[in-house]
Design goal:
The structure holds two protein chains of two kinds.
Chain A: H1 3-16, H2 21-37, H3 40-46, H4 49-59, H5 92-109, H6 111-154, H7 158-209
Chain B: H1 7-19, E1 23-24, H2 25-33, H3 40-52, E2 56-63, E3 66-73, H4 75-99, H5 104-107
Antiparallel strand pairs in B: 1-3, 2-3
Helix pairs in contact in B: 1-3, 1-4
Classes of the chains: A mainly alpha, B alpha+beta.
């Protein structure tokens, strides 16, 4: 491997093992001249890419296998993410509690925004269902009225009475066949919505009080 | 026989070299090797520490198609170097009073 390839390999090695890009450039900036301009003895003294890379990683607090050793602490700059600073894993229960609390706070704060939308949605769904039920009811009542009228007409004009009665009964039958399953579906939908909403609320409050 | 260099002494040597003029890592290593055997792997952490403490700052300059990193002493670095030089004079005087300047007669032994 020639010296240029050594630099490229070193940069890649450091970057792939989690060294921050700024730290990589700093290391390459320092060692680049030694690699490119140093004598053969100086270049050989650096060792392999892995050896030098591991030394540089250790100086940054990143260990790649082997025994650990004391390293100078890296400066911790607030707000700057460091590859050497690994916070301990957070307790999942505490994290869930924090998330639940956050969701409740967000829901309370954004209440004026989402309540209008939710109420509108419910209103629309309820209106559509009510309209449908009204149509079915009207047709059913209409069918019943036709059937009754048909029975009355049978005593004066038999064929007309039979037709009216028959049409009325057909109408009642069709409405009944349509309405009953749709009504059952509507009840199931309402039950699902209630179960989902209350289930989420119960989970949120359980997460906060845990 | 080589006398080991303390971290403070190494810091002061680096600051002193850079005070004489902005320089880059390899050149700095050669200067310091003129007086003591030190490797690049020793100097690199020293430079990082001095930059972390605000005593040195760096900038890049293009050289033959690659970036060469130069180091420059800051005002804080000059202040620290002044302190190091005073401490060194005092330390050297104390060491010399035992090691070279007549021993017992000079420092009150016996």
């Amino acid at each position: 491997m020639d010296r240029s390839e050594y630099i490229i390999a070193l940069r890649s090695y450091l970057g792939s093992r989690g060294m921050q890009p700024a730290d990589v450039e700093e290391a390459i900036g320092f060692y680049g001249d030694i690699i490119m301009e140093g004598s053969d003895e100086e270049f050989e003294r650096l060792g392999s890419v892995e050896k030098l890379g591991n030394e540089l990683l250790a100086q940054s607090g990143i260990f790649v296998g082997g025994e650990g050793s004391y390293q100078m602490e890296s400066a911790f700059v607030p707000g700057q993410q460091s590859s050497t600073f690994n916070p301990p894993p957070e307790d999942p229960a505490a994290q869930a509690k924090r998330n639940s609390l956050l969701i409740i706070i967000i829901l309370i704060v954004t209440f004026p925004i989402w309540i209008g939308f939710v109420m509108g949605m419910f209103g629309a769904v309820f209106g559509i269902c009510a309209a449908f039920i009204a149509i079915i009811a009207v047709l059913t009542i209409g069918g019943a009225a036709l059937a009754v009228e048909g029975v009355i007409q049978m005593f004066s004009i038999l064929p007309v009475g039979l037709v009216l009665c028959g049409a009325g009964l057909v109408l009642i039958g069709v409405c009944g066949l349509t309405f009953i399953p749709l009504f059952r579906l509507f009840i199931k939908f309402i039950a699902w919505v209630c179960k989902t909403v209350f289930g989420q609320l119960r989970r949120l409050t359980a997460g906060v009080s845990a | 026989m080589a006398f080991p260099l303390s971290a403070a002494l190494l810091d002061s040597l680096v600051l002193s070299v850079v005070e004489g003029g902005d320089t880059y890592g390899y050149e700095l290593t050669r200067y310091i090797r003129d007086c003591t055997e030190v490797s690049e792997s020793t100097l690199y952490p020293v430079l990082r520490r001095l930059m972390k403490n605000g005593l040195l700052e760096c900038y890049d300059r293009e050289y033959m198609g690659r970036n060469r990193r130069y180091y420059h002493i800051t005002t804080a670095g000059k202040g620290a170097l002044g302190g190091y030089r005073r401490d060194w004079e005092e330390h050297k005087r104390c060491i010399d009073s035992i090691l070279t300047k007549g021993g017992a007669g000079q420092n009150g032994q016996i």
